[in-house]
What we know:
The complex is a heterotrimer of chains A (693), B (387) and C (360). Chain B is an all-alpha fold. Helices cover 72% and strands 1% of the residues of chain B. Chain B folds into 2 domains: 145 residues, no CATH class; 196 residues, no CATH class. Chain C folds into 2 domains: 109 residues, no CATH class; 239 residues, MetI-like fold (Orthogonal Bundle), CATH 1.10.3720.10. Chains in contact: A-B, A-C, B-C.
Amino acid sequence: MTNWDPSKPILEIENLSISFFTRLREIPAVMDFSCTVMAGEAMGLVGESGCGKSTVALAVMRDLGKNGRITAGRILFKGRDLVTMSDEELRQIRGSEIAMIYQEPMASLNPAMKIGAQLAEVPMIHQGMGRDEAWKLARQIVADVRLPDPDRIINAYPHQLSGGQQQRIVIAMALMSKPALLILDEPTTALDVTVEAGIVDLVKDLGEKYGTSMLFISHNLGLVMDVCDRLCVMYSGEAVETGAVTEVFDTMRHPYTQALFRSIPLPGADKNSRPLISIPGNFPLPHERPQGCNFGPRCDYFQKGRCDAAEIAMSGVPGGDRHASRCLKWAEIDWSAPPKARVSKEKVPVGEIVLKMDDLKKYYSVSGSAFGGGSRKVVKANETLSFEAREGETLAIVGESGCGKSTFAKVLMGLETATSGQIMLFDENVQSTPIQKRNTDTVSKVQMVFQNPFDTLNPSMNVGRQIIRALEIFRYGGSDAERHARMLELLDLVKLPRAFAERMPRQLSGGQKQRVGIARAFAGGAKVVVADEPVSALDVSVQAAVTDLLMDIQRENRTTLLFISHDLSIVRYLSDRVMVMYLGHVVEMGTTDQVFSPPYHPYTEALLSAVPIADTHVERKRIVLEGDIPSAMNPPPGCPFQTRCRWKSQVPGGLCEREVPPVQVLEGGHQIKCHLDREVLARMEPVIKIAAE
Amino acid sequence: MEDLSWGMIIVKGLGRFWPVWLALAATFLISHRFRRRLGLYGKLFDSPVGMAGFAIVMFWVFTAFFADMIITHDPLSQLSGMKNKLPGTALTNPAEGAYPWYLFGGDHLARDVFSRMVMGARRVLQIAPAATLFAFMVGISLGLPAGYFGGKLDTLLSFVANLVLAFPVILLFYLLVTPEMVQTGIPIYLAAFLFIFPILFLTVLWNSRYFMVPARRNLYVGVTLVIGLWAYSGLAFNADPTGIWSMDPNLLNVFVSVVFVNSPGVFRIVRGMVMDIKARDYVAAGQTRGEGPWYIMLWEILPNARGPLIVDFCLRIGYTTILLGTLGFFGLGVSPESPDWGSTIDDGRRLLNIFPHPALVPALALMSLVLGLNLLADGLREESLKD
Amino acid sequence: MLSFVLRRIGVMALTAIALTFIVFYLTNLPPNLEKLAKSEGSVRMADDAVASWLERNGHTGPMLVRYGQWLGVVPGWTREEDGVTTGRCIPRGTDPATAPRYCGILQGQWGYSTVFKAPVVTMLGRSLGHTAWLMLAVMLVMVPSALALGVLSGMREGSRLDRVLSTFAIATTATPEYVSGVVFVALFASATAGISPLLAEWGLISGKTLFQGTATSAMEDITFWNFALPVMTIALYGIGYIARMTRASMTEVMTAQYIRTARLKGASFRQVVVRHALRNALIAPFTVIMLQFPWLLNGVVIVETLFNYKGFGWTLVQAAGNNDIDMLLACSVVAVFVVLVTQLISDIGYVFLNPRIRLA
């Protein structure tokens, strides 16, 4: 490597094409992809699932599996072509010169090996370092990634660490031999937002400290803006736009990039006055890509005979810093024109109270150890939950993993019964009535939309049958024909073609499955719908469409929507009121405006600051929480949030560690469960500031 | 007539199976043509391993079906001068119109090894798939609630299942499959217990699905009950007035024992799969619509467990075939005349050092059938994972 | 961990009691007892004579009580007739006063074998000794070769090596012992078929056959030529089964993310397999090997019968075939005990090998 000139790019990918070969056909995954990463630069690779961004990363590592093959192009790393390198040469580069960090930290660590051994292995392989020395280095790097008590950690097994700690270990492993290039494949997707913020900070700092170049792969535009200098937007196997981050964000020159930005909920979007615009149509399957521009069929600026004539090459955008777009018409489009399709909608007035929870508690008793012995512990999944929801209202329930939001949904649905407290549903107390004992009418009025689109439909029953079954069980209609007709109407309602009735779930895309799930939930004319993270597993462009659909049906049916989510952007966009939960407690509740502006509960403040926002005009205060979310099995005494709270010192006498705070009701019915004085709360500054344009 | 050379034995032997070849060819042509529309079965024709397995299995199935056309002699008749004769030996004084050779030789009682092998296939394929099917009914009916409800029911059922699994199979057979056991009537009680499961299964299946539409429910449940109980009375108690359903007491004993030994294995698989699948969202969706537990078990969970169950079904038929062979090998529960492969091997092994062919022929037949089933299972597993 | 082991042992004891009771019940059914009476007394015994014989020998009374006596938790029956006291615990010709009250298997009184005309304990001890050698040899052949086969074919799924080894494994699982035994004898130990006649013709072997078709002589002196066939016959079926399990486990591990991590760390293929894959991949087969014991017991019974090797399996067959109740019961106790102990080892070993459970 001595003959490499540091002013040249570290990584240079030229016209890379990758295909996967199955028994039936060749499936091109990446076509004509080029990009360069300079020393110390962080390059973001953005796109929706299936766009080929991870394939590029694996190609750089030359780890495409049995079926994948690089069919054309070169990958130059420090001037040497990785594509033609022998296995032995590759082995020497992997881990020492190029390291990779993956999406699932738990799965990336060997469950049967101690952390220290897994870390020490890297210098032992590459530098022939002795065991003791390597362990010493491992200990030092573990301290470097800001893990507490490194001596204990290097002697631990992966399962003894939390998700955030595991990801830090994976990062430490990648840094063991100070690589020149770090590839991060969705490194925070499996983590909670507040934990994610810590990891992102760490990655940025380490990048600067060691001068490592990064290839950062993510579907989250906000995250890319936080971490990267440059980015490359991919669509259906091709790079469609590349350039410096600010340039692409502010003056995008490809219709797909524009559509993408219009479909994500940025501050300022509003479900009524400025609704999101989803991208019409579906992502093309790899073997069904159109002629010419891949985005053509979904593009507003599509011109027949021109855009679908021939393959389109990247062309540079003059005036930019290596800014390029794969669009023929980029110079003709008026990029500042407001979107045509935007229709503002009427705000729905809220009606009567349909659901009222009073002092709801749900405790579980679980055994202490894995062998079933030991003392039994009580897990307080929901602690004194009180709120009400009105007809036509959207109430968002926000929180990270373990906050008790899913338990709450189960109790409401009747899948579990509450330990104490009342649930009034249309003037009927259903607190201790399990679903088996509820009458059909009550059951059909409260329905649920589930999170995982791949799990929400029974894979061995066709779509129509599943909806008809819901109609049958809700005793709709007197004959099969009637139910069949209603099923087709429901498909219309969720904007799916009627032919889908005969399809099996595996033939549907994620968004389409989620629509069927919605149709099924509304089959019995549901009045209260619990949507448990209904769009979090979907791609951004599809998210907007599904969210809009939910909103439309809500407007029509005056449904009460309980929207469970961890994603504050979407919550701000669609909810009327917000309830923030942490470890089973409601820590803050109020209207959307109240919750998203000061005074905040300290947790809400941190949560708001942690969510990356893909808008260069937004300034965020960085508040990074220490540590991980405590286990619900073993919550801290006093205030649940006290272990991570940055305001704790403002409360005298260690009150936070002793007592669960009372609920303070501020003006407008804004509730905050905190020991902080009103004056302190009033002094809080907004986390998000939108700079004037 | 002259004795046949080895080449001629093969040619003539293969020729005797002509109905099987025709049927096999037809099956493969049709299935291969329509393989894209036949689901998992169709995908089998994409896997060489699966196809080979299917071919072997179907060979034996068709052999069992056309056995009467294939055999060259009555499998029980003893022809003088043919004792322990080598394969291809011509009959000493053939009767008019009789097949002039013992293709695979004669056994120690001068019977035709070839014909006994062919009839043995029929014996095995009459019992093994049916016994496996019953074991699946029992295992599924008990494994579903054990996995779905968990708790005390699961603890109890799992304990009983482990009890049976902890028994060395041979010991169990030596205890269960004896003439004394038939005298006590225990097989009948066992049959009464085990045979009720298919009826229960189907009744609950229809009821949970159609209880909102009583007319259809009554039709399906009624038909199930009438046919089921009719067969039940005949098979378990030999009390069918029409005499269509009946089973020889010895055969019943063998059948019941095999079902009994196999059910706990199925139970364990089903239980494990249910525990896995019940955490899926579509199960929760069923629960939130207010579906009953049996609907969820039978219509939401079971169909999605079918892949591994089908694979296990093939493997388990093979295992049952081995078990039946073991029974025959120890002379349990079969009449000494029976052309059953296991007992034929047992007969043949006494003179194994001198005349291996009477034992070798059924041994290889049994092995090929089980091999076919295992290959088929492997192919199915591979293809079902590819989705 | 301790409470886990104790609970497992508790369940095991319960299982053992339940199983031995079932065996006791099934061996002491009225028709079996009648047969016993006729074989011990006279074949032409009338029904009432049978009844009185059973009465005199303590075979009447509630099943549970008789089970308790056999187990040794209920006092043995005694009976006075014509001033002579007989009883379960009173051997003929000894003084009833000195006899112990309890004499079940817990006290080491395993009864008298009617077939072998010898105390059960002696017979059982001898036959178990023979079988122990057989099992040892089987384990030594089976476990290493099965694991090697599984690991080799699982580490590169779909390679030619994998195809060949997998086919071999499937073929062996399709070959029960009574088939492989017959094939082996025909191939290697038949004077008229297989390779022995050829070898004899060429003068390569002095005897008529390469291997011996029986293992009777192995009871005195184990040699390769008399022991290889029975050992291979049992091992073959197990090899295929364990190899397939190992392969499945290995292929699963090889596609795990942490293997990719190791590969992309720059570890060589050898290091990846040895350091990262092997330990994780061998957890599942370990359990399988232990749970193979009930099936191995089957193999032992078949092979000992086939090769006329008078070990545990052969004894079991003789006892079962000749209505030797005490012997059969003793064999069952041993079999059940072996199975349960191996299950316990398997459970504990699984926990021990898997840090995820051990340190949870």
